[in-house]
Amino acid sequence: MEQLIAVISEKRNIGCTLIPYYAQTDENGVLQLIEQANIEHIEAKRFDFSTAQVEIIKLLNTINEQNLFKRFSKQKNLKLFFEKLEEQFTLDHIRPVMDNKISQALEIIALTDMPVFYKNPNYSHMYDTDRIRVQTLFHEPLFDFTLEDSGLRYTLKIRTENGEMGLTNRDIIEVCSSPAVFLINNQLFRFEKIDAKKFKPFLRVNHLQIQPRSVDTYMSTFVENCIRDYYVKATGFFINKKDVKLVPILQLEKDLTQQAILTLKFRYDKREYLAGTRSTVFVNHRTMKGHHIFDSFRRQTDDEIQIIELLKQLGLKSISDSQYKPLSDNELIDLHTVIEWLNIRAAQLLASGIKVIQSGWDDNYYTGSASLSMQYHEENDWFDIKAIIQVDEFEIPFQKIRQHILRGKREFKLPNNQLFIIPEEWFTKYTDLMHFVSADDESMRLDKMHFNLLEQDKLEETSPEWKKEMAKLQQKTIDFESPDGLSATLRPYQLEGYAWMRMLHSNKFGGILADDMGLGKTIQTIAMLLNQYESSENNEQEAEQEEQLSMFNAVQGFNKSSLPASLIVMPTSLVHNWANEIKKFAPQLKIYLYTGNNRTKSKEIGKIFKHYHIVLTSYGIARNDIEYLNNYQFQYVILDESQNIKNPTSKVYQAVSNLKAVNKLVLTGTPIENALVDLWAQMNFVNNGLLGNLNFFKNHYAGPIEKKRDESKEAKLRELINPFILRRTKEMVAKELPPITEQTLICDMTEDQQKYYEREKSGIRNELMKAIEQNGVNKNAILALQALTKLRQIANHPALVDDEYKGSSGKYEQIFQKLNNAISEDHKVLIFSSFVKDLELIEKDLQAQKMKYAKLTGSTTDRQKVIKSFTDDKSCKVFLISLKAGGVGLNLIEADYVFVLNPWWNPAAEAQAINRAHRIGQTKNVFVYKFISAESIEEKIAKLQERKTELADTFITTNNPIKDLSETELRELFA
């Protein structure tokens, strides 16, 4: 029967090899070799191979003559290659490969009992009785040393199950050199970690003799290594097997690239060994009183493995067998990161018996544990913060490292001159807090408006009542009833806004009411003011009846409360609207109109104001009359459409900032029009210092958020402003509003318009790009704005820039088509444009068609009359409105169609326009048409807006998409 065997055979010039054969025994007991087994047989299933047999064939196939020839010969003749093979080349290159593969194959054979035979070149036949015995376990070498006065004598034997076996004068065949494999008397002797060279001297002689002069050197090298790696019999010297304590050491040092690294070592007795050292036995050689002594101890391998696993669990990754670094997403890990890992894990390392040392550094770094305790104590308007860092035996007030936190400096020198590395987490957690605290040697103080910078769990522990109050403020879940005297029923969300303002007042905070257009910011504010004055009324009668009240056009009656008047500042166009709203909803509040050329200008103006509840004025007058107005302490200063103070360098901002008031409030639907600085200006007005000074805000928040999209800064800023800003959109609260349908209509230009547009665009682009190449974008910002404006106007109608133009406009044709359809169906239409001349062109066509309309622009003198003509006259179907004149303060729910003739620089303005019709009180579906000329600057502006609105949406509303155009974006617009 055919079987698979392995045959040890000697080949000329390459020595012993191992070959897999198919064989069978004939009737005479002769073992006949049929064919060498190869990989092709496996693929063809030539034999019922086991997994082990497949592996053996694959291993040995790599060292058959054909494959050795392919790997090591540049000749084309196999026979010639082996005949001319030099012995040294074989020893250096071929035998190491063969020994490796043969050793692997024999390891599998030893475990599977595959038959192995030796093919003696002197005999032609093999028999079953010639089978070689292959043991499962490796054999062990035995070094037998005897130290005498005459020197050191030693021999090398093999330990067998029957005792020691010498090699001298035996018939030995060397199958492999490294590791050694011998064939002796039909038995295979395999060794794990010794090569055949060490055995060769003892094949000829029984022992070797080392002369006395060389004994000391030999003992401390060769003998020590033998005791470490092999079984040794010693006569004339001592081998002590010791039980030594393991001390794991984590050493902070530099690697070859001078980067920080943690090297793991194991100390046994007085010697240290790198983790990954392969020896399982350590040996120390010493002499005492002329005697050679070897202290031998076995490594505690299981304990070492546990230490390595612990380090990995604690967050280290291995760079090599002995070198480690903390796990990190960054490829480069700096010294501070490594030390911080040691600080955080110090207690666990100590508990596990791991000793931390450092070497190779100019400074001595603290690698122990560190902790921070922080407590808050509530005072009237601030929190006292007591924060102590515990570093070893040192207690360090946190304010000592405040400047380190602010400057990003991580190294702090301890009293013992060690360097403490401030944890990275502290910079993330406390940088903002350190910017806003005031600190001295004793403590730190924080204004209550910055309470969100405190750790909220600790705040709840130390000031639970305050924490509850602030939670209500943040979540806007305050429950107050509407004031009794209000002649209106507040909607639920309006009641929440009113209550939120009352909560701000009770905690001496200012706020920004940033509800969407049309949600009733005015009535919420009136309710709050009414509550203020009703609550403070007393029964005392004024000693004098103020006869001069009539001089100031006051409504009969006067301010009976103990509170001073409140000032509301707004655009001029809204003054009468506010007056009417107050008279309608809270007629008991007495109003003084500080407007007009005949207004009283005096530093004694307070003598007039004190008799009124509310003073109404405009931004322009507040700016011009600040020297008078700042002499009076108002109860409230309220800014309506507060985006008017968005520029903190403007005179109007500086003026209103000088107004004195117990409380401050601003109202706006668009707190951010251009950039985050807009938000800073308004928030700084109501809560001075909440966001730091302007330079700090730009560097710490606005810059990182706007330019780098820093999410952590965004989160911090939202956290800071959240309690002091209330924003509700129509979608959130006005569920009862009818649906709004918006549609963008792309209008093809007429042929004449297209030619005119392309001709002008080419000239504008060439002039602008030439200027930009010479002086850059920033110095040509005005030129760019003028160019963009001109192209926008041409996209509407070339007649806007050229009185001689006689052609038509594709956009105008679509506008009048939609307009005629809407009017024929008895709808009212609002038409908004940012260009007054745009409205004038439409006005001419309306007049030609004898269509009744109203028009509101900046030059309109009697706004109320114009508005009334549209709202009260059913035959007046069209209202032409310029953005600046009618973007805010109008309630035009009579209209249910809104035409937006051109995309605004700021998309928020479109929302303002639409909200003139789609607001509380509207019962009809609202349809919005936005007209954009195809293949024009308008289309590109619209796309640019889409890319640039994400930032401001994060912080309440929409920003200006044209601000800070890059050169690339500018070129795209004019392409």
Structural overview:
This protein is an alpha/beta fold and 975 residues long. The protein folds into six domains: 3-134, no CATH class; 140-236, no CATH class; 241-279 and 297-358; 370-462, no CATH class; 486-540 and 559-733, Tandem AAA-ATPase domain (Rossmann fold); 740-973, Rossmann fold (3-Layer(aba) Sandwich). It is 38% helix and 24% strand. The strands form nine sheets. Strands 33-34-32-35-36-31-37 form a seven-stranded parallel β-sheet. A hairpin with a 2-residue loop joins strand 25 (382-391) and strand 26. Helix 15 (521-536) crosses helix 16 (575-585) and helix 25 runs antiparallel to helix 26. It is elongated and about 135 Å long. The model is unreliable at 538-557 and 956-963 (pLDDT under 50). Residues 502-689 form the Helicase ATP-binding domain. GO terms for molecular function: helicase activity. Pfam families: Helicase_C, SNF2-rel_dom.
What would the principal axes of the Cα set say about the shape? Answer: elongated
Number of folding domains?
A: 6
Strand content: 15-25%
Over the alpha carbons, how many angstroms does the gyration radius reach? 47 Å
Mean pLDDT: 87
Give the total of beta strands.
Answer: 43
Helix content: 25-40%
The helix count comes to: 34
CATH superfamily of the largest domain: P-loop containing nucleotide triphosphate hydrolases
Would you tell me which CATH topology of the largest domain applies?
Rossmann fold
Derived structural class: alpha/beta
Largest sheet, spatial ordering of strands: 33-34-32-35-36-31-37
Largest sheet: 7 strands, parallel
Low-confidence stretches: 538-557, 956-963
User: CATH class of the largest domain, please?
Assistant: Alpha Beta
Give the terminus-to-terminus CA distance: 87 Å
Domain Helicase ATP-binding: 502-689
Keywords: ATP-binding, Helicase, Hydrolase, Nucleotide-binding
Domain Helicase C-terminal: 814-966
GO molecular function, one term: helicase activity
